[in-house]
């Protein structure tokens, strides 16, 4: 009788846990799945906490409801698979604002991550360069070309559109700079349209038309019980053995599969596995790949990350606008790059006579010095800047929480997806039972991470001689 498969998953974030659930669902019965998480907590950047007696997200706050093709996103599909579909809730307020010249202006409609499909709609926020987006008789991008988002938009529409619209939008998601982030990775729909369209405005419209959204259909969702309930359900339903505080320090090929070295140097544990799914950020993944695949490790380790801090405050009866929050262009000179009015945006978090929960994000790529401030100084600065932007003296917080996410947001430079494809092709040829998954390779956001983990699990099933169908 054949011995059951043994699969090791390194990383207990949502990517690794989604991979574990997919293995449980599609691998042969009896497959032994073990998740190794170096910290004491599962979920990675999904972390629900408590502030002033109510739940609040200290990491990711929501997920996209639909994928680029218009079907249910991988996050929603996993949530339904785990029996949590009834807990999905949507924002009560969807309108966000931009800080422009020190004041709040509504984010204009008709844009794609800030890139306008209608120049008149953005005129109140940014003045597009006159007649810059002319049809030159050829597509904006070649068949395999990738460029920085900022370079393309500056060339076609001018600096203000980048600085006041695109850069803060991308900064809110990636904590990065439009002038350094890959168009193909961060805005794939626009990149596809740009390969056949002659103007940027035309490419935006084509990308929007290719992914129509039903009027009134919610774009984002979260879970009423907090996103940590997704983590807990995935860990439980996977049936995996969960090893917390279990750092995997080395990975070596053996004639039968893989050997993992787990735990401290003074008392290491050696574990055998038939396949390994690496669901950790690029740098720890590169360290583990250094032995079996040194060339691949060099490429993987070259991916850089931005660090951020999330400052959440519970405020007694503040005067807040009816907005989900606001984004801040770097040109405004503020420490804050984005803010979310949690109890305005998410109706299920509102409590009668309860405090308002407001969160601000601090930290842009290349500006980590701002994160050297103490927690108290971060809170004081954020409180002062919020009061300034809202033009009102906010009350003293009843409670506050500072969550630092060091090296948490991947920075995808042009050519990123091609480099990842080459890495995976090399691994598939030399080590088909070793798979990479996660935000560092495939993009940010819960649906992308879930899909990445599931796809890696299916590759492992195929490599071990099974069927992922």
Can you walk me through this structure?
By secondary structure, the protein is of the alpha+beta class. Helix content is 32%, strand content 23%. It is built from 15 helices and 22 strands. It has helices at 14-26, 74-81, 149-157, 159-174, 183-186, 188-194, 200-210, 228-238, 282-289, 294-300, 342-345, 375-390, 416-430, 439-442, 446-463; strands at residues 6-10, 32-36, 48-51, 54-57, 63-64, 88-89, 96-100, 103-106, 111-112, 115-116, 220-223, 241-243, 248-254, 257-262, 269-273, 275-278, 304-315, 325-327, 336-341, 356-362, 399-411, 434-436. Helix 1 packs across helix 15. The longest helix is centred in the C-terminal third of the chain and has 18 residues, at 446-463.
Observed structural traits:
single chain, about 475 residues, alpha+beta, 7-stranded mixed beta sheet, 5-stranded parallel beta sheet, 15 helices, 22 strands, about 30% helix
In short:
Helix 9 runs antiparallel to helix 10.
N-to-C span: 24 Å
Tally the helices. Answer: 15
Task: Name the helicity range.
Answer: 25-40%
Biggest pleated-sheet summary: 7 strands, mixed
What is the β-strand count?
22
**In what range is the share of β-strand residues?**
15-25%
Radius of gyration based on Cα positions? 23 Å
List the helices and strands and how they pair.
Layout lengths: L5 E5 L3 H13 L5 E5 L11 E4 L2 E4 L5 E2 L9 H8 L6 E2 L6 E5 L2 E4 L4 E2 L2 E2 L32 H9 L1 H16 L8 H4 L1 H7 L5 H11 L9 E4 L4 H11 L2 E3 L4 E7 L2 E6 L6 E5 L1 E4 L3 H8 L4 H7 L3 E12 L9 E3 L8 E6 H4 L10 E7 L12 H16 L8 E13 L4 H15 L3 E3 L2 H4 L3 H18 L6
Parallel strand pairs: 1-2, 1-16, 2-12, 7-18, 16-22
Antiparallel strand pairs: 3-4, 5-11, 6-11, 7-8, 9-10, 13-14, 14-15, 17-20, 17-21, 18-19, 19-20
Helix pairs in contact: 1-8, 1-15, 2-15, 3-4, 6-7, 9-10
């Amino acid at each position: 009788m054949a011995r059951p498969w043994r699969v090791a998953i390194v990383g207990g974030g949502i990517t690794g846990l989604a991979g574990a659930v997919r293995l449980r669902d599609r691998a042969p019965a009896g497959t032994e799945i073990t998740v190794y998480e170096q910290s004491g907590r599962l979920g990675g950047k999904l972390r629900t906490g408590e502030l002033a007696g109510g739940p609040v997200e200290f990491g990711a706050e929501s997920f996209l409801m639909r994928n680029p093709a218009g079907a249910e996103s991988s996050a929603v599909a996993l949530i339904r698979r785990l029996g949590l579909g009834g807990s999905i809730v949507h924002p009560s307020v969807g309108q966000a604002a931009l800080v422009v010249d020190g004041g709040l202006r509504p984010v204009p409609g008709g844009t794609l991550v800030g890139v306008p499909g209608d120049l008149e709609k953005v005129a109140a926020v940014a003045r597009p360069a006159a007649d810059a987006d002319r049809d030159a008789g050829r597509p904006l991008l070649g068949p395999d070309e990738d460029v920085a988002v900022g370079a393309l938009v500056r060339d076609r529409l001018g600096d203000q559109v980048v600085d006041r619209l695109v850069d803060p939008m991308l900064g809110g998601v990636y904590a990065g700079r439009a002038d350094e982030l890959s168009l193909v990775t961060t805005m794939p729909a626009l990149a596809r349209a740009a390969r056949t369209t002659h103007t940027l405005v035309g490419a935006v419209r084509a990308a929007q038309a290719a992914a129509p959204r039903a009027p009134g259909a919610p774009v984002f969702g979260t879970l009423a019980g907090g996103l940590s309930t997704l983590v807990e359900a995935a860990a439980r339903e996977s049936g995996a053995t969960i090893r917390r505080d279990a750092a995997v320090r080395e990975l070596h090929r053996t004639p039968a599969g893989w050997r993992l070295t787990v735990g401290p140097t003074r008392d290491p544990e050696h574990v055998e596995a038939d396949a390994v799914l690496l669901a950790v950020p690029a740098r720890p993944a590169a360290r583990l790949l250094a032995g079996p695949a040194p060339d691949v490790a060099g490429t993987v380790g070259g991916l850089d990350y931005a660090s951020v801090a999330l400052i959440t405050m519970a405020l007694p009866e503040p005067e807040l606008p009816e907005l989900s929050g606001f984004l801040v262009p770097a040109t405004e000179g503020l420490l804050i790059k984005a803010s979310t009015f949690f109890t305005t945006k998410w109706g299920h978090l509102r409590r009668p006579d309860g405090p308002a929960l407001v969160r601000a994000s601090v930290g842009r790529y290349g500006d980590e010095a701002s994160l050297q401030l103490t927690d108290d100084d971060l809170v004081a600065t954020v409180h002062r800047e919020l009061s300034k932007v809202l033009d009102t003296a906010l009350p003293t917080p009843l409670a506050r929480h500072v969550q630092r996410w060091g090296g948490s947001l991947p920075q995808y430079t042009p050519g990123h997806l091609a480099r990842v494809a080459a890495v995976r092709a090399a691994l598939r040829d030399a080590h088909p039972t070793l798979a990479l998954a996660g935000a560092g390779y495939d993009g940010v956001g819960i649906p992308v991470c879930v899909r990445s983990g599931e796809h890696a699990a299916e590759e492992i099933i195929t490599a071990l001689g099974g069927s992922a169908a």
